[in-house]
Design a protein that fits this description.
Helix content: 10-25%
Number of domains: 2
Largest sheet: 5 strands, mixed
Radius of gyration: 23 Å
Strand content: 35-45%
Order of helices and strands: EEEEEEEEHEEEEEHEEHH
Number of helices: 4
Shape: elongated
């Protein structure tokens, strides 16, 4: 994945010439694309989402040997290239003869917090609260096994951020990002079969341009819409640019 920043005060422009889309105003200098290589494009203007909160409540009579478990899944594609785009893990506890609802919940809470999810788990008297961490506001949780009817799951749905904060970009190691700013995200699937291309080396890649939210995007949007791509699906995708 290729990441670029447009900082506050920059003038962002897009110009088509000689089969190229030249994007100026980008931190570190302009970038050029062979516009026939742009397969998809979308623009998300910054808007803060809300964090999902789910509870997994342990209650009732505990029987040694019974199992309580649930599966967590979360899209972490932007967090770390070493992780799968969607991280999924079953969290499980086998009840012992000395367990209480609090010890079971504590065990499960600790298991969640030891994994690389962007979720914080807490426990209060057998009620495990799982709260998503921005910008990864959404996750899924579903029961896998509950031998003794000891597990109840409920969720207050979250909503994904549109765009991204500067603090999040700094945390992700994106060069030129400024903590305290908010950024729109222009995302392009770009393909180039040539070797030595400045954007993609002989293949397909995801290109993201993080645009400080006070910077106008009109020029680049107009240039993208004016490309001579004939693929109908791509045209429909480009039409979503506002």
């Amino acid at each position: 994945m290729k990441n670029y920043i447009v900082q506050a005060g920059a003038t962002l422009t897009g110009a088509l010439a000689d089969g190229k889309l030249k994007v100026s105003g980008v931190y570190g200098g302009p970038i050029e694309f062979d516009y026939n290589g742009i397969k998809k494009a979308s623009l998300a203007a910054y808007s803060a989402g809300t964090a999902q909160v789910s509870t997994a409540t342990i209650s009732g009579t505990l029987t040694a040997g019974n199992v309580v478990s649930f599966q967590l899944s979360q899209d972490l594609g932007e967090k770390n290239d070493a992780l799968p785009d969607v991280l999924s893990q079953v969290i499980s506890h086998t009840i012992s003869s000395t367990d209480t609802v609090t010890t079971v919940a504590t065990s499960i809470k600790n298991a969640v917090n030891q994994l690389p999810f962007e979720i914080v788990a807490t426990n209060l008297a057998g009620v495990i609260t799982l709260t998503a961490t921005s910008p990864f506001n959404v996750f899924s949780i579903s029961e896998v096994k509950d031998d003794g009817a000891n597990l109840a799951i409920s969720t207050v749905a979250g909503s994904a951020n549109l765009g991204i904060t500067g603090a999040n970009l700094v945390g992700l190691g994106v060069t030129g990002a400024v903590s305290g700013s908010n950024y729109d995200v222009l995302e392009m699937v770009y393909e180039d079969i040539r070797t030595g291309d400045s954007i993609v080396y002989a293949g397909t890649d995801l290109v993201k341009i993080y645009i400080e939210s006070t910077v106008a995007t009109t020029s680049v949007e107009a240039a993208l819409k004016a490309t001579s791509i004939t693929d109908v699906n791509v045209r429909e995708y480009l039409a979503k640019l506002s």
